[in-house]
Design a protein that fits this description.
By secondary structure, the chain is α/β, with parallel strands linked by helices. It is built from 19 helices and 9 strands. Strands 1, 2, 3, 4, 5, 6, 7, 8 and 9 form a 9-stranded mixed β-sheet that branches.
Length: 450
């Protein structure tokens, strides 16, 4: 199985930097970028060719193609011209140059703020209203990451959810029968399960707290304290939020107790995240944060691994958040200048709201569906481990990273500071977070203009 090209953390820096770099270019094409005039009623018969650009490749592209084949079978007059393996940066450039894109499927919600505000993706509101699409099928959180400042320019298409994976055999050997629900409990258990070599180096970690290791990121840890990213007016809320210092102090103390240098050396020697040598696969990590797609990797690369999943623990004082988590996903929109907007909308509506299509994609890709009907479908293939991610997705307190005109730039800025802080180079935490706020707000001002 290939590396997942839509891993949220893996694309963080690229998405953030690319969004800032191209925002002004795309803004130039936003004047006159209005939704195409649409008929009062949807066409009763669809005919023609519509293009779909998406980022999947190899086996995963085959899953998408199977769903497209179903769409074409249901609409025999329609041909879908599929362009696979297309990343967001290329899509941006083609849209900005007036290229022929009808529907674009992105691996990251980071594009939503920019694509909505510049008109690179069309406003879908008129289509949704006309066809009476039931948007209550989507949770408020999922809806929030596919619109920007009241404009819905994208529809959700599957999601990634994060939880805590644990090795049942390692925990059983230690006599552990219940997973911790608090961060302090996670740290205590992790230290109990950690083993060292004769030279003092780490042989096995109960849990690796190192920021930047695999899926360890501020976004994936943040639900433990309900960490807020942006204010209602789109400015950075990181420095003024009460939860982030609690979480960062816990993580830094955890790192210090094991030893920064030891953790750095251990982490540097771990196998590649999306290979069979992933440290959770090999037993070098007893517990790890990861997405639902890890279940598919384990089935393929470590089928004998005896493992379970659970919600990520919460900090003291935030116990009411246990069971929730972080969700982000793939989104799709109709490109500005689409020459076949009705065909594009029909295809987009199918990919984002048709229960059979969503279930088929979820079963093939092992992502989480984004509609209630698909989540509750008897055709959805659900294991005990996968059920955890469904439960988190359905939890009303599950959060996401909100859209911004700087894309994932604000996450990158925070992550960069956090890696300095865990190394002891972050200085005073309060001042450091205030500087993160300033850096993020300056970038927002640069992109948004006066």
């Amino acid at each position: 199985m290939q590396q997942r090209s839509h891993s949220h953390r893996g694309r963080l820096a690229i998405a953030g930097i690319a969004t800032i770099a191209t925002a002004i270019t795309l803004t130039g094409c936003s004047s006159g970028a209005t939704s195409a005039d649409i008929a009062d009623e949807a066409p009763t018969k669809l005919e023609g060719t519509v293009s779909l650009w998406h980022f999947f490749s190899d086996r995963e592209a085959d899953v998408i193609q199977n769903v497209i084949d179903d769409f074409e079978e249901d609409n025999p007059g329609v041909t879908v011209d599929v362009h696979e393996g297309q990343d967001d940066e290329k899509v941006r450039k083609v849209i900005a140059s007036g290229g022929d894109i009808d529907v674009a499927l992105s691996y990251s919600t980071a594009v939503v703020g920019n694509f909505c505000s510049t008109g690179a993706f069309q406003d879908l509101g008129p289509y949704i209203d006309r066809d009476k699409v039931d948007m209550t099928e989507f949770s408020d959180t999922v809806k929030s990451y596919s619109e920007y400042e009241g404009t819905r320019c994208a529809m959700p298409v599957l999601a990634d959810v994060n939880a805590l994976y644990y090795n049942k055999d390692i925990l059983a050997e230690a006599g552990v029968t219940e997973m911790p629900k608090t961060l302090d409990g996670l740290k205590e258990l992790a230290l109990q399960l950690t083993e060292y070599n004769d030279d003092g180096s780490i042989k096995r970690l109960g849990f690796n707290p190192f920021m930047g290791m695999y899926e360890n990121s501020p976004a994936h840890f943040g639900p433990a304290v309900g960490g807020q990213w942006l204010t209602d007016d789109g400015r950075s809320a990181i420095g003024s939020d009460d939860g982030w210092p609690v979480l960062m102090t816990w993580q830094k103390d955890f790192v210090d107790e094991i030893g920064y240098d030891k953790l750095q050396a251990f982490t540097a020697g771990l196998g590649q995240e999306f290979s069979a040598e992933n440290a959770f696969h090999t037993g070098q990590l007893a517990m790890a944060v990861d997405g639902e797609y890890r279940t598919a990797f384990i089935d393929d690369q470590a089928p004998d691994l005896n493992y379970g999943t659970a919600p990520f623990p919460t900090a003291k004082g935030y116990e009411d958040l246990y069971g929730a988590g972080y969700i982000v996903g793939n989104i799709a929109g109709i490109a500005q200048g689409s020459k076949h907007p009705e065909l594009a909308w029909a295809l987009l509506k199918y990919l984002s709201t048709d229960t059979d299509a969503l279930v088929k994609m979820a079963n093939g890709l092992k992502n989480v569906p984004t509609t209630t009907s698909a989540l509750q479908s008897p055709d959805l293939e659900v294991t005990e481990q996968y059920q955890t991610f469904i439960d988190i997705a359905l939890n009303p307190k599950t959060t996401t990273t909100p859209p911004s005109p700087v894309g994932a730039g604000y996450e990158q800025a925070f992550g960069d500071y956090w890696t300095k802080y865990q190394a002891g180079d972050g200085g005073d935490l309060t001042k450091g977070l205030a500087e993160v706020d300033k850096q993020i707000n300056d970038s927002i001002d640069l992109v948004s203009g006066p």
